[in-house]
Target: TIGR00153 family protein
Amino acid sequence: MFNFNPREDKFFVMFIDEAKNIHESAILLKKGFENLDNKNEIAKLLGDLEHKGDLMVHDNIIELNNAFITPIDREDIFRIIKKMDNVLDDIDSAANRLIMYDIKEVTEESLEMCDMIIEITSELLKLMEELKKIGKRNSMVEKIREINAIEHKGDKLYRRTITNLFKNTDPIEIIKWKDIYLILENTLDSCEQIAAIVEGVVMKHA
Model:
């Protein structure tokens, strides 16, 4: 049985708070792609959420260093923290590419990838909410499978999109969009990597 005291349980609360911040950022990212006239304002809001995420990482690491006992392995806590930070960094980077490359019109594929990021970060939040139930009845395995399925769907879309992109005759557009698509795909990959870490935690506590 796992009986966490409030200090130990704080790690799970932190994970949930970080996942909420990530999901909010994903929703904003889609708005940035849909509303290019407001891309600067939306990028600033995302920058604020990214900074908020950095503070969360800092606080989590301090808490981890000060903790005598942790509910799951320290290494797993640290890896989850860093991977969630990577997701947030990628979302912020994708929004800023719209400004850096002066994107005037987005593609249907990029909007579809943004939808997948919203979907996968929603599942990531649900997974973090389930993680606090480790050692009890939970639906973590189902959430992990769902995240894997979304990432797999994203992989297929990415490959198809890049194939079509190189049929474009404008080399500048190819360079711009190849970079943007790669960042969006990396965001999905990082979410799947978090799910893989959690899957390892589940196996350890099975």
Confidence is low (pLDDT under 50) at residues 1-7. Helices lie at 6-34, 39-66, 74-100, 108-131, 140-165, 171-204. Residues 131 and 140 are 7 Å apart (CA to CA). The chain has one domain: 6-204.
